[in-house]
Amino acid sequence: MAVNLGKYGIWRIARELDARLAVEIEKLGYGTIWIGGSPPGDLALAEELLDATTSITVATGIVNMWTDDAATVGASYRRIAAKHPDRFLLGVGIGHPEAVQVYQKPYDKIVSYLDELDEAGVPAEGRALAALGPKVLRLSAERTLGAHPYLTTPEHTREAREIVGTGVLLAPEQKVVLDTDPARAREVARPYIKPYLGLSNYVRNLRRIGWSEEDIADGGSDELIDHLGVHGDAESVVRAASAHLGAGADHVCLQLLTPRGEDPLPGYAAMAEHLR
Q: What's a single GO MF annotation on this record (predicted)?
């Protein structure tokens, strides 16, 4: 791997990231900042974060194939890679069908988009693919550095590693809540998780790894919320997230969930003490 992600990174929605926060995250020792959501194809935010820092990797999680053409994204990638060699990973994916009006033959779309990224000069080792199911996981191993699964558990990570094989990046996202009170933690986590439980690709994946219709319905059972948004003190949530590493992941993207508007930096600092 030319791009070094480290073992732990932070995943944060694009609108809640800026240069100041990036500098502090780098100081805390995290390996990667993942720009969450669907950052635009100009990759301006990625460049801003890289310009402000000196060594941390920046990755997109993910640029949406339906909304940003590969030629534009490829040109942005080349600009950033030339300026910050080996510090940027282009995560791409197709999102979910409910978010786009034209959403047909998603697998064919992924293949053609990767072909276009090849033509645009984005090397396989410079990109990762959002992947949940076996078919796209295998494609991530064949055509990219590896897979970036979202809204998953260590059980999915274990299965994903078996599918992609060795020597392929596996970088799952894990939501965490720094609160030792289960009821309060679920009150924080559920509003973040509930919208995904109405999206077909995430629902299929949760069913695939053994969650029932009852677990997924009505905003998610307490057990499901506790697995998708692990909670506890900083040491506990890092231990829970590290189960992905034990299951075969190379890197875990920590998405810290907080009450709306709360400064996340103290939480990142508390977790950082347990990452080494």
A: oxidoreductase activity
